């Protein structure tokens, strides 16, 4: 047998319908040393049910498997085929105690595909990295994943090796572009994140999560996941509630290196609150994506001060916000970045939004009439709501869950 650590079908664009179609793959897998194979890459090919069963059988004795890349392996398959084929692969992976990475990205299996994955989580709790990007999970699929992680943690507690209901090995979850929306985000927040104390990387961009979902999600992460290094919530909706939840959670993540909250509509007040909150903390920050968030000039003027004690920031994206790209503040931002050795860190500011002049005039008139009282009230609201978030956030009941505090 040939000793090798990786077997790849990447780029071969195979259409494997039957066991006969998969015969060459099975033959090649059988020729590999069962104790040496650590990684399989099947992405970019398409497996029918019988082909999946045949290949899965060839994997069952590969006890050293650590990485299973099963992304984009069901193109053109019928909705009824995919769960059966996926279940065959799960059969081959459930007993792989060295398995660390499972990649199922770009498989449109929807909620039906979440059911086979449930068994994998519960029976194999060695998994560290879960990649479920662009699977069409929807609210129900997100709920199933959340419940599965919670149940896996409970199973872990019942084993001889664990004292608490947690999944200590899992440190990375990628679940972008899944239409999870607010309800599934709440399920993940209430059921999954509390059992993931060692979570370091969470990517959930483009999921249609509304402010009330973001609020609960950030609260849960702040309380349960202190080791967060990478957080990507791009293209969900924060507004004021989400901004304040972020402000409250930030101090919980001293190891934060990457934060992507672009296209999240934090708004003017939310942007200022966020920048003030992150300025004295997050010393390890390296990348901040803050595009299209309606940040105005007053917010942008806080950025040079924020960067002053963050010498490792080498990626800063601010395009699409509401200040002039030719304003002196941009020069000030670039100057700080250059002093820190990252002169090319700032992105191109080619799509800046025009400030809402009507809103600005109204705000100026109100401040003039009230002697700045409205501005002070906004700042007081930010402080009060941030404090309230710190004391416990009451979460309204979502489908299948009782009302509870997190």
From TrEMBL:
<feature type="region of interest" description="Disordered">
    <location>
        <begin position="344"/>
        <end position="383"/>
    </location>
</feature>
<dbReference type="InterPro" id="IPR027038">
    <property type="entry name" value="RanGap"/>
</dbReference>
<feature type="compositionally biased region" description="Acidic residues">
    <location>
        <begin position="348"/>
        <end position="369"/>
    </location>
</feature>
<keyword id="KW-0433">Leucine-rich repeat</keyword>
<keyword id="KW-0343">GTPase activation</keyword>
<dbReference type="InterPro" id="IPR001611">
    <property type="entry name" value="Leu-rich_rpt"/>
</dbReference>
<dbReference type="GO" id="GO:0006913">
    <property type="term" value="P:nucleocytoplasmic transport"/>
</dbReference>
<dbReference type="GO" id="GO:0031267">
    <property type="term" value="F:small GTPase binding"/>
</dbReference>
<dbReference type="GO" id="GO:0048471">
    <property type="term" value="C:perinuclear region of cytoplasm"/>
</dbReference>
<dbReference type="GO" id="GO:0005634">
    <property type="term" value="C:nucleus"/>
</dbReference>
<dbReference type="GO" id="GO:0005829">
    <property type="term" value="C:cytosol"/>
</dbReference>
<dbReference type="GO" id="GO:0005096">
    <property type="term" value="F:GTPase activator activity"/>
</dbReference>
<dbReference type="Pfam" id="PF13516">
    <property type="entry name" value="LRR_6"/>
</dbReference>
<protein>
    <recommendedName>
        <fullName>RNI-like protein</fullName>
    </recommendedName>
</protein>
<keyword id="KW-0677">Repeat</keyword>
<dbReference type="InterPro" id="IPR032675">
    <property type="entry name" value="LRR_dom_sf"/>
</dbReference>
């Amino acid at each position: 047998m040939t000793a090798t650590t990786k077997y790849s079908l990447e780029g071969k664009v195979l259409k494997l319908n039957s066991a006969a179609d998969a015969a060459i793959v099975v033959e090649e897998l059988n020729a590999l040393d069962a104790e040496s194979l650590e990684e399989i890459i099947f992405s970019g090919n398409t497996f029918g049910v019988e082909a999946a069963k045949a290949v899965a059988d060839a994997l069952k004795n590969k006890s050293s498997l650590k990485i299973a890349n099963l992304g984009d392996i069901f193109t053109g398959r019928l909705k009824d085929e995919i769960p059966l084929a996926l279940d065959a692969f799960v059969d081959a992976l459930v007993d792989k105690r060295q398995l660390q990475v499972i990649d199922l990205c770009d498989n449109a299996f929807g909620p039906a595909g979440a059911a086979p994955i449930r068994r994998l989580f519960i029976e194999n709790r060695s998994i560290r990295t879960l990649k479920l990007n662009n699977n069409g999970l929807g609210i129900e699929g997100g709920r199933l994943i959340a419940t599965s992680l919670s149940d896996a943690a409970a199973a872990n507690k019942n084993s001889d090796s664990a004292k608490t209901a947690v999944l200590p090995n899992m440190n990375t979850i990628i679940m972008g572009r899944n239409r999870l929306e607010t309800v599934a985000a709440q399920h993940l927040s209430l059921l999954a994140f509390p059992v993931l104390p060692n979570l370091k990387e969470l990517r959930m961009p483009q999921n249609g999560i509304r402010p009330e979902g973001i609020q609960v999600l950030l609260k849960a992460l702040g309380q349960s996941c202190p080791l967060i290094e990478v957080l990507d919530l791009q293209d969900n909706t924060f507004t004021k509630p989400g901004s304040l939840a972020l402000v409250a959670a930030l101090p919980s993540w001293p190891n934060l290196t990457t934060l992507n909250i672009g296209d999240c509509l934090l708004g003017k007040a939310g942007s200022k609150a966020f920048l003030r909150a992150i300025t004295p903390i997050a010393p390890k920050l390296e990348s901040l994506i803050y595009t299209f968030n309606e940040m105005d000039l007053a917010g942008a003027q806080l950025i040079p001060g924020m960067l002053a004690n963050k010498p490792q920031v080498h990626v800063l994206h601010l395009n699409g916000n509401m200040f002039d790209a030719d304003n002196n503040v941009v020069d000030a931002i670039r100057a700080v970045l250059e002093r820190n050795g990252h002169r090319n860190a700032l992105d191109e500011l080619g799509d800046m939004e025009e400030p809402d002049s009507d809103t600005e005039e109204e705000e100026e008139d109100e401040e003039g009439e009230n002697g700045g009282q409205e501005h002070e009230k906004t700042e007081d609201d930010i402080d009060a709501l941030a404090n309230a978030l710190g004391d416990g956030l009451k979460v309204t009941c979502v489908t299948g869950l009782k009302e509870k505090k997190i």
